[in-house]
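User: Predict structure, ligand adenosine monophosphate.
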Amino acid sequence: MLIKPGTSVSLKKYDPDDCGSFGAHEEAEEALQKQLTELTHLQNLLYAEGRRALLIVLQGMDTSGKDGTIRHVMGGLSPLGVQVKPFKVPTQEELAHDFLWRIHREVPRHGFIGIFNRSHYEDVLVVRVHGLVPKKVWKNRYEQINQFEKLLVKNNVIVVKFYLHISKAEQKLRLEQRLADPTRFWKFSMQDIKERQYWSAYRKAYEDVLSQCSTKWAPWHLVPANHKWYRNLVVAETIVRTLRELDMQYPPPSVDLTQIKIE
Ligand code: AMP
Ligand code: MG
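Assistant: Predicted complex:
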């Protein structure tokens, strides 16, 4: 769901269990496959055109499904034209620069789809929640982010941002699954338990992100994400719609084809 620019967002008004008009996973499977087929085609066009890039920003609480979304929605894309960048705790070198320095250099080149698993928004989320910089510093960042994204858009980078919306109960379930399944132990981190204690501070920080940084040029999409299959479908549909609206064309031949004879 598109967050209309200027909306003052209250997350409790959005149901993380929402499944649209679908009753069950199976019904949505066909719809998802259709979207993924079209996405493959659109990616090929974007690459062939080589005139603009698509930047997908994924944010959400721990366990909200950022990795899973990348696997299920972007998994079928051609590796030739896609790059995934996870943003972790900044290094000393990164911290010695402005917060957008490490971000800007990972923006995809024209023709490419770039996926940010976390992003510059961490600098107004985790940084705010844990007071890693003074309030007056992070407060100024919303406007800086909006201006940065405007610069990207004006330079032919399309920016689409997804907030994966899960409930606190769903996070509990997912953390418990990580603890109960040997194939998921690796995903579990004590950090997740610690961060969970800051649930409401993160919610507030996300509400401000969605309220202040959903712009005409780079809107936020809120994705109900308690049901993974619905989350995948919504993300896929939104990306397909965004790319379709570009009305891309395959470039014309660069030479006079009638003059060419392959011996
Ligand atoms: P994960 O995505 O689970 O691999 O965890 C990455 C960790 O890096 C998360 O705990 C984020 O909060 C943290 N992180 C990402 N960006 C920043 C940032 N700019 N400042 C501080 N921590 C960050
Ligand atoms: Mg994690």
